[in-house]
Every structure is written in C-alpha cells, then in structure tokens.
C-alpha cells in the first residue's frame, strides 16, 4: 500500500508542477486560469488520495476525504467564477499581433460580402 500511496503523491506533485509551469509560461489570464484550474485540481486530488491510502483506515483519512470533496467542488467553481468576473470586467483576451479573433473574422466576412 505504501508504494501505491507514493505513486499517487508523485503523480500529484507532477501535475502541480505542470500547473505552476503553466502559470508562469502562458501569455494571458484566461490561459493561465484554464491550465491552473484543471491541473491543480487533479494534482491536489492525487496527493490527497495518496495521503488517504498511506494513512489507512483512521479518523485522519476521513478528514482527508472531506478535504478532497471540498477541493473537487471548490476549485472548478472558483476558477469559473474568477474567469467569468474577468470576462465581465472586459479583460481582453490575448491574441498574437496580426492575427484576428473569431469575432473580428466574422465582422470582416460580413463587410466583405456587402462590398460586392
């Protein structure tokens, strides 16, 4: 059981490292929240499962399971709420210079059709 617990905790640590890398490397707020929201939830879940397996059947395992349930409910909800608040406050989406977003392409396509 100890080997299984270590495997879960190492995998969780790897996902948390990927989450930190995404937070540092990605260009804008929305990309960062997407990367961190997904991989941090999975990483924390794997670490907590590893800890629960390592502890065995004890009261502390029940507490870890409650924390795990809270993490599974709160992390995606908080990520969604923060991203939606950013969108409503008109935080711009990052685009490469010279490339158009989907809205700009559709507006230009409508204008090109009117010129004929």
Number of domains: 1
Q: Over the alpha carbons, how many angstroms does the gyration radius reach? A: 21 Å
Task: Give the biggest beta sheet.
Answer: none
β-strand number:
0
Using the alpha-carbon principal axes, give the shape: elongated
Uncertain spans, ≥5 residues at pLDDT below 50? none
Q: Provide the helix percentage.
A: over 70%
What is the count of helical runs? 4
* Structural class estimated from helices and strands: mainly alpha
**What is the mean predicted local confidence, pLDDT?**
87
Q: How far apart, in Å, are the first and last alpha carbons? A: 72 Å
Sketch the topology as an H/E string, one letter per element: HHHH
Assess the beta-strand content as a share of residues.
under 5%
Describe this structure in a few short sentences.
With 116 residues, this protein is mainly α.
Your description of this structure?
The structure is a single chain. This protein is mostly helical. It has one domain (2-94). The protein contains four helices and no strands. It is elongated and about 60 Å long. The N and C termini lie far apart (72 Å). 13% of the residues are buried.
List keywords for this structure.
116 residues
Summarize the topology.
Elements: H1 2-25, H2 29-55, H3 59-88, H4 102-115
Helix pairs in contact: 1-2, 2-3
